[in-house]
Amino acid sequence: MPTSTDTVARHTSFDVEAVRALFPTLQRSVHGDKPLVYLDNAATSQKPTAVIDRVRKYYAEDNSNVHRGVHRLSQIATDAYEGARERIAAFINAAHSHEIIYTRGTTEGINLVAFTLGQSGLDGDADIIISEMEHHSNIVPWQMLCERTGANLRVIPVDDRGELRYDAYREMLSDRTALVAIGHISNSLGTINPVREMIRDAHAAGALVLIDGAQSTQHMRVDVQELDCDFFAFSGHKMFGPTGIGVLYGKESILNDLPPFQGGGDMIDHVSFDGTTYDSLPHKFEAGTPHIAGAVGLAEAVAFIESLDMEAVAAHESDLLAYATEQLRAIDGLRIVGEASEKASVISFLIGETHPYDVGTLLDQMGIAVRTGHHCTEPLMDRYGIPGTVRASFALYNTREDVDRLVDALQRIQPMLA
């Protein structure tokens, strides 16, 4: 079995079978003899052997704490940890590596911004704009901020197709708008939001913009300087990296003006009982011993993605989405929720009046892993008047055969759902 990202790099076009061979979990069966069909990638992606091996190497050979250690292992760990930061900065085209703040994931990155903005003089005259399709991680921190400061939370509505009402967004923008926080791609609908235009219009109103990139870095190239976003948050585990590691990108000038998020070791310049001064970026926001193995594992995941022809990957995922949409529409009683004109490879659906949980449970018994429920987008489900959906989310290692297995399983369980 190939174990290096170099194997993929040798392919001039996208070879899905070569990619699948790099992911050990995709080779297993479940419930005895059922080959796994993994369609829960919007929740978390599988990990290639190279990422698994890199994390193991850190713990087996290089395990040490980072920064200030004079011994050899600490120097090796520090070089790997900070080298990962540089690689990640280049991956999203940040202007400086110190604009990369390590977090536990997208959720912590958003909370960091919400908390520190709240400490920076936000008041009851300010508006925070989010959308009706946001993940709870991009709703609740802003609600908490508004409760603390008296700021106003405003919500962009979503139309029946699952697209933002851009006219309503423009009407909301004003000189009161302090921040717009928007998901790049909807985790429950797959909608790709027009973030470039949204950032442009928000900046024209004098507002900052945070992009929740949890669902985008694994599907498309992200250039934060081209987008001109002020903050961009993403998670390692959704882009073939380890769990418990993520990144908050922020523009240097803005991060410098924000207060620390947490206090402790490694974020200080000088500590005395009379007062404390704080370190410069990025350390000001990274209190305590970090997830070193997670950082080096995430850098390896970035290397994996960079080894691919992303245009070919995008074409492959687009083909999967189109094929799956066509096949699922042909199933009697199946309704797709969310049919935006610009979509990533996510399909949410319902079958008749059957509860999504029942469909997902039966699919699992046939080896098909999907996600059911409200997908941490409960307000969006309320907007459509449904309890949740069945969600099939595809990654670059999925195939048309996976779609066929899903469709066949749904057709087989239909009589059980009557």
Could you explain the architecture of this structure?
This protein is an alpha/beta fold. It has 2 domains: 5-35 and 309-417, Aspartate Aminotransferase, domain 1, CATH 3.90.1150; 53-306, 3-Layer(aba) Sandwich (Aspartate Aminotransferase, domain 2). The chain is 39% helix and 17% strand. The chain contains 15 helices and 17 strands. The strands form 5 sheets. It has a 7-stranded mixed β-sheet with strand order 4-10-9-8-7-5-6, sandwiched between helices. Helix 6 (140-149) links the parallel strand 5 and strand 6 (152-156). Helix 3 packs antiparallel against helix 11 (292-306), helix 5 (106-118) packs parallel to helix 6 (140-149) and helix 13 packs across helix 15. The longest helix is centred in the first third of the chain and has 20 residues, at 72-91. The two termini are 44 Å apart.
> What's the CATH architecture name of the largest domain?
3-Layer(aba) Sandwich
Shape: globular
Estimate the helix proportion, in percent.
Answer: 25-40%
Q: Nearest-angstrom radius of gyration?
A: 22 Å
Low-confidence stretches: 1-12
CATH topology of the largest domain: Aspartate Aminotransferase, domain 2
Main beta-sheet strand count, sense and barrel state: 7 strands, mixed
Number of separate structural domains: 2
Strand arrangement across the biggest beta sheet: 4-10-9-8-7-5-6
Query: How many beta-strand elements?
Result: 17
CATH secondary-structure class of the largest domain: Alpha Beta
